[in-house]
Amino acid sequence: AHLVEGVLSPASSGSLQTNLDLLGELVKANPEVFAILNQVLREQPGRYNAFMQVVVSNLVDSNVFLRSVLLSLELFAAHKERLAAIGSRYVMEDCLLQRFLAHNTLRLLRDLMTVVSVDDVNQENICCLNTALSLLILARARGHLDRYMHALRCWEV
Fold first, then answer.
1. Strands, E, within the chain: which ranges?
2. Which residue did the predictor score with more confidence, 55 or 92?
């Protein structure tokens, strides 16, 4: 809850990336922490929407968190039955972040690909392109790459 509050606090703008990076490390491949994060995001009305607004509005700061979420969700989907068998509190169908990515993947991909110009790429922001590549790799694995590329081209026009 402390890290979520840190992300939502305007006073901690200097530590936004630190809070999100730490949160990304905590949720990475950890279904129990995912369950806790879902619970924390649901505790107060508007908290989830406010949190996701900060995430999408600050992609240079949040992309490592998003990549951790994306790769973790992929892992959880591959081991769904095993997670249920061991009594995990994580339920994919109830996961706010999974729903968010399912509905916003193309927009996130476009935004990650355009948040940094070619002239401005550096060590601090190249990770945005790595997260975009992760989305494209998973799209290819699911057979969605052609559809994604077509949608991105249409947005260019």
1. none
2. 55
